[in-house]
Amino acid sequence: MTQRPASSQWPAALRLMLAAVAFAVVLAPWLLSRKAAREAFPGFELSSPSIPADAQPFFFNEEINPTSPQAKAHSGTLAELPDGSLAVAWYAGSGEGARDVTIQFSARGADGKWSAPRAIFDRAAVSAAMDRYVLSLGNPLLLPESDGKLGLLFVSIAAGKWSGSSINYSVSNDRGETWTSPQKLTLNPLGNLSALPRNPPVKLIGGGWAVPIYEEFLGRFPEMLWLRAEDTAPRAAVSRMDDGMTVFQPSVVPSSAENALAFYRDDSGIGRVMVSESSDAGRNWSKGQPSTVPNFDSGVCALRLPDGRLICAFNDSTSRKRENLRLAISSDGKSWRTVATLAEERGENFAYPYMILGRDGRVRMVYSARDTRIVYAEFNAAWVDAQLARGEEGVR
Amino acid sequence: MNTVASIWLASALFLLLLWLLQRLLRGRWGLLFSALGAALLLIVPILGHPARYWVAALAGNVSVPLVALLVASIAARAGLSPLFRARERRACWIFGAVAAFVLYPSALGLGLRNFDSYALGWPWLDSAVSLALFGAVALTSALLVFRGNRFGWVLVLASVAYLFRIQESQNFWDYLVDPLYAAVSLVACAVLIGRRLKD
Predict the structure, then answer these.
(1) Is the Cβ–Cβ distance between A106 and A65 less than 8 Å?
(2) Fewer beta carbons under 10 A from the terminal one: N or C of chain A?
(3) What is chain A's mean pLDDT, rounded?
């Protein structure tokens, strides 16, 4: 009986050919992704709203969930749909990370009234859809597509609290009435844990989103989620904005296709909103530098007004609670002047501001109030100027 | 989770349970009873959920080398022809340990500020540096295949699995390494180095 030779004893030519096949197959994923690579960083699409015809100051606010019995309503997200209607989502339940937390949704149509909030996802439904145990839900983020579809990112927690979270994606084709089965985005190799969205996404030229997200496992750090809706599954990847030591919860404000500023919640103890910049369409970011806006470990959100000025919503309360919510304005993103106080009450919480620019040039905003309410606010640049003229808050 | 990913995860969990039970149930019918036991554990709900729900919650992706290691170990214990010889096992441990060392510190936010080695696994995100990663793995695979080391084919299988997206992840790294494989590889490499130093 002849013994079959071991593969290492095969002729060198055959082994070389097999090695070449192995090399080509392992390299194939990279070679086949060249078209997608050319579209990876297409640049930021700038929103270009018309300046409001009336230059009169306008300010309005109201609670979206005024009768909610839930002890916690938090992390609101807001989107303007192509027909001008508004959609808002947030999470609510008996507490952060509680098992009864659901993703809540409400919409405002032409009648100007918010629909009754309703749960669009609970942990049982998400668990069944994704074939995995889900402990709780959290931070939603709406993605209004140009074709009228409404994307949604939200967090599911596998264990523990926020460090055990990961991000899921779903789409509505009927303005939030129904949602597709959620799909988990794999963004981290360590059990895919600890990624969360928080601040508004930035549209990319030609479609897709740059979504500022953050991780909080051993260290809290900011990342950019590059997301593009595709037929079968969304194409998702993340790139780093900073390391795990100093800043998180980025709010990204582009000034051109290539240039953008990012404002961060401070995690270093400096006590200021940190700011960094990118000049290559969000691919790389400079090291965060302190701005003049106070920040004591609370969420911030920034936005560019139609006239180019920047506005930032922030808390400067030094108590354990976030007892106020203020607005500051700047022309360069580094030096700021506080212009208004949206909410202030000792012992209460006003947190997680989320701002978008409406197509009419007005700022539309949601924030958490008193732990249980989601407040919608709307104002224009003229109102900001009026506040500035009053000089109520003074220069900081 | 899509059906293919769900089947892959359930299969990997079945193999892991079978591997564990095989160590408890010996004898002529050991493999059969182990397989039945693994299937039962896969189906019967634990605290209201199937076992795969609990595993998927914390480990959604299982690498191809880990599955290959399990298959090779189960086959060897069942008395079948060994799929992995000592040199394949050694290559597997070294690859897993190196991958863990390159990948996990930066995934935790350590290291360079704007650099995350995990991002290299999305080949469309960073052309030049990800080419270096894919090139290094391709070269490793080619060299192993040339030398007749079967672990080289495991890396080829991982690439094929990635092309067909058999897992939820779109990141090439998740087809090459996972935390369990990485941890086992680091321990195995430590033992290998310890033995080498002792000798």
Answers:
(1) yes
(2) N
(3) 90
> CA A384 to CA A303: how far, in whole Å?
13
**Beta carbons of A58 and A362 less than 8 angstroms apart:** yes
Nearest chain A Cα to B144, which residue? A19
Closest CA to A238 of A252, A250, A226: A226
Going from the C-alpha of A374 to that of each of A177, A258, B175, the distances in angstroms are 20, 34, 42
Determine, for residues B148 and A7 on separate chains, whether the beta-carbon distance falls below 8 Å.
yes
Closest by Cα among B94, B57, B86 to B184:
B94
Total count of domains within chain A: 1
Nearest CB among A25, A190, A285 relative to B160 is that of: A25
Instruction: State the nearest Cα–Cα gap between B30 and chain A, in angstroms.
Output: 30
Contact A188 B118 (CB under 8 A): yes
Q: Name the more confident of A84 and B64.
A: B64
Across the interface, which of B124, B158, B160 has its CB nearest the CB of A40?
Answer: B124
- pLDDT of A204 > 50? The answer is yes
Question: Could you list the residue range(s) of the whole structural domain that residue A309 is in?
Answer: 9-390
Residue A92 lies in a domain: yes
Within 13 Å of residue A246, how many CA atoms lie on the same side as its CB? Answer: 16
pLDDT of residue A396: 36
CA dist list (Å): A300 to A40, A113, A208, A307, A317: 27, 27, 24, 21, 13
Q: What is the pLDDT of residues B121-177, one digit of tens each?
A: 998 887 788 899 899 999 999 999 999 999 999 999 999 999 999 999 999 999 999
Please report which confidence band the pLDDT of residue A344 belongs to, taking 50, 70 and 90 as the band edges.
Answer: very high
User: In chain A, which residues have their Cβ closer than 8 Å to the Cβ of B148?
Assistant: 6-10, 15
- Between vectors from CA B98 to CA B93 and to CA B102, what angle results, nearest 5°? 150
Task: Tell me the three state secondary structure of residue A91.
Answer: strand
Q: How far is CA A108 from the centre of its chain?
A: 21
Using one digit for the tens of pLDDT, what is the confidence trace for A37-93?
A: 888 888 999 876 666 556 799 999 999 999 999 999 999 999 999 888 999 999 999
DSSP symbol at A94: S
Tell me how close the Cα of A351 comes to any Cα of chain B, in angstroms: 26
Q: What does the pLDDT average to over A179-192?
A: 89
CB < 8 Å to B107, chain A: 188-190
With respect to residue A396, please indicate whether it lies within any of the assigned structural domains: no
d(CA B122, CA A197): 20
In a domain, A385, yes or no: yes
Tell me the β-bridge partners of B184. Answer: none
A22 chain-B contacts, CB cut-off 8 A: 138, 141-142, 144-145, 152-153, 155-156
Instruction: Say whether B169 and A192 touch across the interface (CB within 8 A).
Output: yes
Structure tokens at A77: 């997200």
Over range B36-61, report the average pLDDT.
85
Task: Tell me if A123 sits within 8 A of A135, measured CB to CB.
Answer: yes
Residue A303 belongs to a domain: yes
CATH number at residue A353: 2.120.10.10
d(CA A140, nearest CA chain B) in Å: 19
Nearest alpha carbon to residue B9 among B174, B185, B183: B174
